[in-house]
Amino acid sequence: MSDGKLVGIVLVSHSAEVAASVAELAKGLAGGATDVPVAPAGGTEGGGLGTSAELIAAAAASVDRGAGVAVLTDLGSAVLTVKALLAEGDELPDGTRLVDAPFVEGAVAAVVTASTGADLDAVEAAAAEAYTYRKV
User: pTM here?
Assistant: First the structure.
């Protein structure tokens, strides 16, 4: 458990609307989870489809509460953009981690787990475990 600080969550999508909608869905399915800092980082600065290092960095800074930041992504270039930011070393808050998880299910699991005060390792594990969710 943390010291009262919650893990922040950033949802990176190629679409601003998708990122915002998944953030809303995850918080809603987590019983509101109003205390969990969640930020969407979707699309480009101009509102187009794509990913923006600047929007991702700003989102990560906005959710950083000192307990780490879990970043979930949708598709290929979003992953590459986050990896590049992490490699630069000074663009994202300390304790920022790219989480390998399905975007929607992982986001819900991450927000639910973060809302309990769990640490970054537990949030990452819960999000990654969402890969095992079967639908049939």
Answer: 0.94
